[in-house]
Amino acid sequence: MARKGFFGEIVHGECAYNTSKMRNNYSKTTYWDMWWLKLYASKRGNIYPTHGLGPVAQILNINRGDRFDYLVSMESNDFMMRNHAQALAAEDDFFKPFADKTYRGNINTSIIRTVKGRTIMVQHDATSPRGPHTVIHGITGTKGMALEYPLPPRISKDLKGWVPQEEYDALAKEYTPTIITRMSELSKRVGSGHGGTDLLEDWRLIDCLRNGLPLDQDVYDGAAWSSIGPLSEWSVLHRSNSIDVPDFTAGAWEKNLPNMDINLTRGGTTKVLA
């Protein structure tokens, strides 16, 4: 829909990974060597930005006509993790090494500004007692906007508010790309985790490699998206001052073209054995 101009010029994107991981983080068996809990005690800023940022960055053609310019990041105090570690340590010596740690805040909110003057909100909160898993995926344009999570997904256009469900369903049918239709059919036959996206990601990667096609994301995307982690930490530790995001493409972003072939105009020949 964004590629076809439905939302007009995209001016803002927002994404997040907000879901309570307290039970997992303090489990003795979920993560090897308690590495996730140790990370919370050693890092500040957004420690998991790419999950939500990748899709928004691709919609905004980051590194392909625009790029991240600079960011600011703000974080709350930790109101829960140290208290929980101390409560567990009072009954179990295993948790004593974690009882006096200084943990990252409950929630981090970072704002990225692009060279073309657009903005992206990236949020992370895996501590607070949230109900449903909320990743947030939204874009705002000059002619409309879309927001997915918290459910249900919604679309608005031309300043008229959220479209009614029947209109939403018609838009979804009209704009659903070929790759989603194909993968939905396959996942029903062979099964797939994460609502079918595991199969989609694996199949798409293999199909691109088999057909000699460029991947939907490259190492420059990976570097840009991942850099938000340490850059947001720097900003948090410096009273939320701004910090530049490096141009990992060395200027190539100005002439790179979008390469997400979501309608499978090339390739799409890889078969899946059910």
What can you see in these coordinates?
The structure is a single chain. This protein has 274 residues and is α+β, with helices and mostly antiparallel strands. Helix content is 32%, strand content 17%. It contains 8 helices and 8 strands, in the order E-H-H-H-E-H-E-E-E-E-E-H-H-H-H-E. It has helices at 22-25, 35-40, 50-59, 81-89, 165-175, 178-190, 197-211, 219-237; strands at 10-18, 68-75, 108-114, 119-125, 137-141, 144-148, 154-157, 243-244. An 8-stranded mixed beta sheet has the order 7-6-5-1-4-3-2-8. The radius of gyration is 21 Å and the shape is globular. The mean pLDDT is 92.
Quickly list its features.
17% strand, 8 strands, alpha+beta, single chain, 274 residues, 8-stranded mixed β-sheet, 32% helix
How are the SSEs ordered, and which strands pair?
Blueprint: E1 10-18, H1 22-25, H2 35-40, H3 50-59, E2 68-75, H4 81-89, E3 108-114, E4 119-125, E5 137-141, E6 144-148, E7 154-157, H5 165-175, H6 178-190, H7 197-211, H8 219-237, E8 243-244
Parallel strand pairs: 1-4
Antiparallel strand pairs: 1-5, 2-3, 2-8, 3-4, 5-6, 6-7
Helix pairs in contact: 3-8
Instruction: Going across the biggest sheet, name each strand in turn.
Output: 7-6-5-1-4-3-2-8
Distance between the termini: 32 Å
Any low-confidence stretches, pLDDT <50, length ≥5? none
User: For the residues shown, what is the average pLDDT?
Assistant: 92
Strand content: 15-25%
